[in-house]
Every structure is written in structure tokens, then in C-alpha cells.
């Protein structure tokens, strides 16, 4: 699954977080989050869960659900 950059940025903004805040709270490196957002890497399901939990959203709220 790929993270949808726009959806993730909206969820981050709704929490008034920065990328650094998200990285620290989810215990994920900032570089990894940037790689997920750019599409260079795909996160593991457990990592998606950590990100969604910190942002108080469902995983499907931050991933691209379109079939490509």
C-alpha cells in the first residue's frame, strides 16, 4: 500500500503536527516518512498502523486506495 501524500498532509495539519512531530510520536525516522510520502518506499502494515494511530485516523484515510 502506498501512502497518499495529500491525505497524509491533511491528517498531519488536522493534528497541528509537523513531519518531525509525527516521526517522533510514531517512533519512525523523518527520512522514512519522507520516503513514504514521495513513493520511494512503501511502509509495512505495522508502520501504517503506527502513523494512523498517532494521527487518530484509519489507515484507509491516509493510503491511496485507487487500483494502479
Question: What is the strand and helix layout of this fold?
Answer:
Layout: H1 5-14, H2 19-26, H3 30-38, H4 45-55
Helix pairs in contact: 2-4
What does this structure look like?
The chain has 68 residues and is an all-alpha fold. It has a single domain (5-59), classed as 434 Repressor (Amino-terminal Domain) (Orthogonal Bundle), CATH 1.10.260. It has 4 helices and no strands. The termini are close together.
Instruction: Please indicate the percent range of residues in DSSP E strands (runs of 2 or more).
Output: under 5%
Give the count of helical stretches: 4
CATH class: Mainly Alpha
* Number of domains as seen in the coordinates: 1
What is the compact description of this entry?
This protein is mainly α and 68 residues long. 56% of the residues lie in helices and 0% in strands.
List keywords for this structure.
mainly alpha, 4 helices, 0% strand, 68 residues, single chain
Amino acid at each position: 500500500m502506498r501512502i497518499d501524500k495529500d491525505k497524509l498532509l491533511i491528517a498531519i495539519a488536522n493534528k497541528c503536527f509537523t513531519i518531525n512531530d509525527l516521526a517522533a510520536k510514531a517512533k519512525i525516522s523523518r527520512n522514512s516518512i519522507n520516503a513514504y510520502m514521495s513513493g520511494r518506499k512503501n511502509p509495512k502494515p505495522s508502520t501504517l498502523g503506527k502513523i494512523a494511530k498517532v494521527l487518530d485516523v484509519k489507515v484507509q484515510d491516509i493510503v491511496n486506495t485507487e487500483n494502479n
